[in-house]
Every structure is written in C-alpha cells, then in structure tokens.
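QA checklist item 7 of 12: single-chain prediction sanity check.
[x] sequence parsed
[x] length recorded as 190
[x] structure emitted
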Amino acid sequence: MKAVAILGSPRHKMNTDILLNEIIKGLVSVAVDVEKIQLGKLAIKPCIACGYCEKTGTCFIQDDITPLYDKFNQADIVVVASPLYFNSVSSITKIMVDRCQAFWSSKYVFQQSSIDRQKRRKGIFICTAGSQLSENGFIGATVVMDLFFRAINTEHKGSVLVDNTDKDFVGDNKILLDEVYRMGQELASL
C-alpha cells in the first residue's frame, strides 16, 4: 500500500507535524509505504479560475503541485494535516485544495476523469487549533477537506481535531499520540 501524507503547516516539528508523524509511524508499522510532503517547501501558485481544466481535464500551471496529481492517483491512503487558520485550513493547504479543481472539472465538466475513479482510497484529516474552540469550531476546515477528499475520490474515514494547542502541547499528550498512531495502523486495514 502507498500513502501520501501532506503537511499543510509552515511550522515543522510543532503540533500539526507531530500528529502527522504519529499517524505516519502507525502506517509504516504495518508496512505502508509513506511519502511525506511539506507544502511549505513547495512553490505552488494559486488557482486563477481560468477554466483551462474544464476544457482539458488538467491544470495548465506547471509547478510543484503537478507531481502531486499522480501521487494522489497512485495513493491508497491520503492524510492531510493543517493547522486551523481563521476557521479553515492554512493558506498553503487551501491552495493545494483549490488546484485540485482540475480533478473535479475532469470528472464532471470535461467528462474524462484524470484520477482513477475505480481505485478505492482512504483519507484522514488532522487539524490543530491554538485556542479552545466551541463544538463547531473546526467546521470550516472539515467542510473544505470533505470536499477535497471527494474531488480526489477518497473516502474520508475520519478526522483528528485537537484544539487548545497553545496551552496543551500535543507532544506531551501520550494518550493522544498513541491514539493517532493506532489510527494509522487501523487505516491500512479498513
């Protein structure tokens, strides 16, 4: 099995990255081949709504996201981790999501899917928030990610949503780390 693990945080070795690394460890422990991609290290241009993908099924912009299209297509598992910024995913994560408009357009407008619609993929979303949130505090991010997973033909198997990380560093929460590690292991068998 192959997995793509996307870090949508500009901060390395902090809360979001720590949780992503735990799920990666869980996946690797059950022989899943994982490629971790740090969006903050890539040069990705935003979608300009030009309509090119509606006519061709692909995006005309050739940048560091272009190889991700094939990685999503080949993956059995997709994990996306982003901090919560203004009740949504980080801007670098949102640029990636927006650029996957090409998948949606290829399926529904161009009528020639550029992603294998028969392949069964599973996805997990990890999101951290610095402040303590109310019950629906993550909804802006979870709605975006649910639509993203649909665009890449991936069954959204669940989310890890952790708030109050400015006060409670996730690296100190062994129970949470163990739970996320197990999620990685279980994701491979679902």
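[x] summary fact logged: The longest helix spans residues 15-29.
[ ] second reviewer sign-off
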